[in-house]
Amino acid sequence: MTKETVHATIVVERDYPFSPERVFAAYANADAYRQWHAASGVTHELTYEFRAGGRLATTFGSKDGPKFHSEGHFEDIVPNERIVSAGSMHGFGHRSSSTLCTVELRAHNGGTHLTLTDQSVYYAGETPQMRNEGWNGILDTLGSFLQRKAA
Amino acid sequence: MTSTQQGSFTIRRTFDAAPARVFKAFADIDAKTKWFAAPNGEWEQLERTFDFREGGKERLRGRWASGMITDFDCTYYDIVPDKRIVYCYEMHQNQNKISVSLATLEFQAAGKGTAFTLTEHGAFLDGYDDAGKREHGTGLLMDQLAKSLENQS
Predict the structure, then answer these.
(1) CA distance A145 to A20
(2) pLDDT reported for residue B41
(3) Distance (Å) from the alpha carbon of A10 to chain B's nearest alpha carbon
(4) Which residues of chain B have pLDDT under 70?
(5) How far is CA A27 from the centre of its chain?
(6) Helical ranges in chain B per DSSP H
(7) What per-residue confidence (pLDDT) applies to A39?
(8) Using an 8 Å Cβ cutoff, are B133 and B5 in contact?
(9) pLDDT tens by residue, B105-142
(10) Nearest to A23 by CA among A15, A42, A38, A136
(11) How many Å lie between the alpha carbon of A100 and the closest alpha carbon of chain B?
């Protein structure tokens, strides 16, 4: 029996007091990305080919909690402006969602306005509410990472 | 400066054919070619691949009479036979990537027929297309799909 799917769009926005070039660099460099993308959790594995068509695969989770695996590709990259990626999440022993994610960067008030749009279909286990909390934690961690780099 | 417009739409149809037959119209290249195509004489096929499995890719690239080249570049994410198909596709026009979309197709038995739902999430890039136009174009394809199912019965 196939359960009903849930479709949802989540938009999360942040203002960072750093230039779009600096924010983009946190995405463009795998070593930088590794330091913030799992929020407070742990990155167990990361494949990060930062180019349109490149593979993006990561296994992550909380230190002692369940592991999640996300597998997808970068779809479109415009330096300092836009990163589009798509793929699926595996958690709870099965494929739990598929996602189209767009990150847009705009110079704003001497810093950067970041808009993340997550358009997803949820199969089972995951919910839009969990995803929303996840992105908020990740983008807060990105903010701390940028502060640390600037210090 | 780039621009991006996100949008979503849902198309619901009821087909007289059973879920297995409607599913086959997406899963089998011969059945799909009956409806997923441009009108004869207006379009020339340049490239076609069809690898219908999770992680597999589909490609349909062709040149219109106007000279414009369009390219449907698709990766299958999730397949549940006779129930569900999820895929991600890029659309290209000439040298431009105009959109990235995540499409979910759901097939539910309804009497002897099928209640069909298509849900698309799209990121439309740099103003070449938008969700309204894509919904219209996808609706026309669904009309062709319906016709292909009638012709087989």
Answers:
(1) 15
(2) 78
(3) 11
(4) 152-153
(5) 9
(6) 19-27, 29-33, 131-152
(7) 84
(8) no
(9) 999 999 999 999 999 999 999 999 999 999 999 999 99
(10) A15
(11) 6
Give residue for tokens 């019965």. Answer: B153
**ipTM of the complex, rounded to two decimals:** 0.93
CA distance B69 to B36: 16
Q: Which of A87, A102, A121 sits opposite B6 (nearest CB)?
A: A102
Q: State residue A1's pLDDT score.
A: 46
Q: Which own/partner contact pairs does A98-102 have at CB distance under 8 Å and 24+ positions apart?
A: A98/A123, A98/B77, A98/B78, A98/B86, A98/B88, A98/B102, A98/B104, A99/A72, A99/B102, A100/A75, A100/B88, A100/B100, A100/B101, A100/B102, A100/B121, A100/B122, A100/B123, A102/B4, A102/B6, A102/B123
* Count of A-B CB contacts under 8 Å: 79
**Could you say which residues of chain A have pLDDT below 70?**
1-3
Sequence-ordered list of residues with C-beta below 8 angstroms from that of B32, at least 6 positions apart, any chain: B25, B26, B50
Indicate the pairing of strand A55-61 with strand A67-78. antiparallel
Q: pTM (2 decimals)? A: 0.95
Query: DSSP letter at B130?
Result: -
Task: Retrieve residue B58's tokens.
Answer: 């589909």
Parallel, antiparallel, or unpaired: how do β-strands A82-91 and A67-78 relate?
Answer: antiparallel
- Is the distance from CB of B70 to CB of B93 less than 8 angstroms? yes
For residue B88, how many C-alpha atoms fall within 13 Å in the half-sphere facing its CB? Answer: 26
